[in-house]
Automatic annotation (TrEMBL):
SUPFAM superfamilies noted in UniProt: GAF domain-like (SSF55781)
The protein's name: Antitermination regulator
InterPro entries membership: ANTAR, GAF, GAF-like_dom_sf, WH-like_DNA-bd_sf
MF GO annotations: RNA binding
Transmembrane segments: none
SMART domains in UniProt: ANTAR
Species classification: Bacteria, Bacillati, Actinomycetota, Actinomycetes, Micromonosporales
Domain of life: Bacteria
């Protein structure tokens, strides 16, 4: 392939640009513990950071759930959503476990229905790279160009690194989301315990804080005193309930 003939805006992406993209993604996704929010951040950052990429999308397959999608531009969300048809570059990438590229969709015949929609919406080129997240979720990151032949070898290399890096970051987000859900279930169980619930109520009244913060106060006290949480709650309730001398 003759890269020298490429217009300046689609020249091979440099190492520094790719490193900046991965660094920005890491900073953005490390703070998140919601998977859908992480997908939205991923496609937005990728669109803004990659020269020659006009839009970015993500197609996600989750075990036991309908396929999900994220798009940097809502107008094009149907290109990533499998409810609009399963015969897509993203599904090819997921099924084959390899990158799929179409430089000029006007000459493409692999996904006729999808391609017709893409051309109608102004998409002229696409790269889809498979993303392995965990045992329950796989997907593909989709890069779109509004000009034919705008996505070149440099974009493929960046897409490959992006897919690998995004898989690790999204797996971490999923793990944090699971742990947060487990912690929420544990908190609910603790708040259902009579004496702990009473102690939480005492702290809420004293500090004017929500139940979650009051429970954290109890946890901190239990840790610093090296005694069980329930015992801390019992002591607090006992102290508050003790009659005061006149």
């Amino acid at each position: 392939m003759n890269l020298e003939a490429s217009p300046p805006f689609v020249e091979t992406l440099g190492v520094l640009e790719t490193a900046a993209l991965l660094r920005e993604l890491t900073a953005g996704l490390l703070a998140l513990d919601d998977f859908d929010e992480a997908l939205a951040a991923l496609v937005r950052v990728t669109r803004d950071a990659m020269v020659g990429v006009s839009w970015c999308g993500f197609t996600a397959l989750r075990a036991g759930e309908p396929a999900g999608a994220a798009a940097s531009d809502a107008r094009l969300s149907g290109l990533d959503d499998l409810r609009c048809g399963p015969d897509t570059p993203a599904m090819d990438a997921i099924r084959r476990r390899e990158m799929v590229r179409a430089e000029n969709l006007a000459k493409e015949d692999r996904w006729p229905d999808w391609t017709a929609r893409a051309l109608q919406w102004g998409v002229r080129g696409v790269i889809s790279a498979p993303v392995d997240i965990d045992e329950q979720v796989i997907g593909a990151v989709n890069l779109y160009a509004d000009e034919a032949d705008a996505l070149r070898t440099g974009h493929q290399l960046t897409a490959m690194l992006l897919a690998e890096h995004a898989g690790l970051l999204l797996a971490a987000v999923r793990d944090r989301q699971r742990r947060a859900a487990q912690a929420g279930e544990q908190d609910a169980a603790l708040l259902g315990d009579g004496v702990i619930s009473q102690a939480v109520g005492v702290i809420m009244t004293q500090r004017g804080c929500p139940a979650e913060d009051a429970l954290e106060v109890l946890r901190s006290a239990a840790t610093s005193l090296s005694i069980p949480l329930r015992e801390v709650a019992e002591r607090l309730v006992s102290t508050v309930s003790r009659p005061r001398d006149n």
